[in-house]
UniProtKB/TrEMBL annotation, chains A, B:
One of its GO terms (molecular function) is DNA-binding transcription factor activity. Pfam families: HTH_20. It comes from Mesorhizobium plurifarium. InterPro entries: ArsR-like_HTH, HTH_ArsR_DNA-bd_dom, WH-like_DNA-bd_sf, WH_DNA-bd_sf. Residues 15-94 form the HTH arsR-type domain. The gene is yczG. This is Uncharacterized HTH-type transcriptional regulator YczG. The lineage of its organism: Bacteria, Pseudomonadati, Pseudomonadota, Alphaproteobacteria, Hyphomicrobiales. It comes from the Bacteria.
DNA sequence: TCCTTAGTTCAAAAGTTATTGAACAATTGG
DNA sequence: CCAATTGTTCAATAACTTTTGAACTAAGGA
């Protein structure tokens, strides 16, 4: 770990809700949840926003305690802080992710108009 | 009913999360949940914010589909849209309210420094 | 060493949200 | 009718948030 993260008990409910109340960040969290255990780097999310803007949103998620970012080489490996979130706010993350999965209007990773060449 | 409300299927997850991501509105929702079934008027929330500001926050909650406001005489009777929220986002409201109840730092109705004379 | 890749930082611009007070409407009770 | 009560609207301002591009750092490979 390298960048500043709140401890589990510093995670604040209104801040988490506000941070999740953004379609881009919700898409990031949803994708992280779908790949749980697999640390992802920022480039996975480039179809959601520009590199600079992603850096901003990922910092918000990290500062809120929703994600953890670990510097490995020139990459940041990003994971969901599921255990901390579940401990602090039982059931919240699951219901948010389930609701997001059921919403066709939400942006999602790998759904962008610009499709990646294989 | 008098003021504009979204239908159940128009309720949007990111908007609901963003609206709940504010301590004043979270306090309102929490209090409504604790008095479920009892329609409350705005004056119940005057220890959270000014009348004007409450009007603003209550409009946000209503427009997001979190609450229902019915005009009765000169009052607005406000209720939680629990059934609609539970249908759209199962478990979300309960986990948010439970998390809010466990947070000592959140403002709450009837907790203000200025106590009401009996 | 030089180049590329991965991501951050900074400052500016644009957009949105929150808060305020003064003025307004509508209902109700005297 | 008059006054009080309840809440809204409006305009202004303050305070954030989001988005952008250009410049930057740091690691890794040729």
């Amino acid at each position: 770990m390298s960048l500043p993260h709140p401890t589990a008990d510093q995670i604040s409910l209104p801040i988490v809700l506000a941070v999740l109340g953004d379609p881009t960040r919700l898409a990031i969290v949803r994708y992280l949840a779908s790949k749980e255990g697999v640390p992802l780097n920022c480039s996975k999310f480039l179809d959601l926003a520009s590199k600079t803007n992603l850096s901003y949103h990922l910092a918000k998620l990290r500062e809120a305690g929703v994600t953890r970012s670990e510097a490995v080489g020139t990459s940041r490996l990003i994971t969901l802080r599921r255990d901390d979130l579940d401990k602090r706010f039982p059931g919240l993350l699951d219901s948010v992710i389930a609701a997001a999965d059921g919403d066709k209007d939400l942006p999602a990773v790998g759904t962008a108009e610009v499709e990646v060449s294989a």
